[in-house]
């Protein structure tokens, strides 16, 4: 089996190659390729692989653009850091996905699903991929929440996005304002809340913290590779980004 890997982050690419080789030791790995231009050149010179592991965001654009130009009849497993809408679309079209950072057990389950489907049912990946691309192109512009309800003493107040510094999970979901005030919200989890937030403004730093870009002063790099975020409104709060997520945070923070 030949597997093509499309991934533009060197550390993640090396980790992915290592995990795939451990799970599929007999497979021939192609790549990793980091850009759309490299992928198009590769497809022009090679026969199609049996499986493609494709990051959504490559160095020069999104990998969807490759498959608009190169018809492919092989299955794809997409990887992504934050595009929840795309994740739902992949699931509806039976195209698997992995949410970064990717664990080896999660990757192993994806390969098991691939083998199971290939052996038991006829697959129609070209039609599924075509449908997926059509859905993504036709989807309406996403509208994100701009005001968040929270409890202030016995009053319910609406906090605009510009006053939000971060959200913290500590038994309940707290909203921390740019002035450092902590307000209780009724949101059930950060997972559900994150789906309402504009990813250009907010980043899920950890299981406990979702931060707003404009509330960040900067970050420090720990010797372990993780990042320590500097949020003036949450002085004393340890807010970190894992080594695996650090490249995505840096890219988001500089945009």
UniProtKB/TrEMBL annotation:
Keyword DNA-binding (UniProt): yes
GO cellular component, one term: cytosol
GO molecular function: phosphorelay response regulator activity; transcription cis-regulatory region binding
Residues the record lists as 4-aspartylphosphate modifications: 55
Stretches of the chain forming a coiled coil according to its record: none
Any one GO BP annotation for this protein: regulation of DNA-templated transcription
Full protein name: DNA-binding LytR/AlgR family response regulator
Classification via SMART domains: LytTR (SM00850), REC (SM00448)
Superkingdom classification of source: Bacteria
Presence of keyword Chaperone: no
